[in-house]
Amino acid sequence: MEPFTMKLFNSTLIGLSVAAVASLTLGVEGASAQLSATGTSCNVANLTGTTDCEGIFSGNDSNTITTETSLFGKTGWTERFKVDNSNGTTGPLIVALNDAREETSGDWELSEGFNFEDYGSVMFVLKGGNSFTSYLSDGVTMAGDWNTDDTLKGNGRRGADLSHFTVWTTGTGSNNDEPTPTPVPEPAALLGLGSIALASRFLRRKSDDV
Question: Which of 32, 54, 173, 203 could be bridged to 117 by S-S, CB 3.0 to 4.6 A?
Answer without folding.
Answer: 173
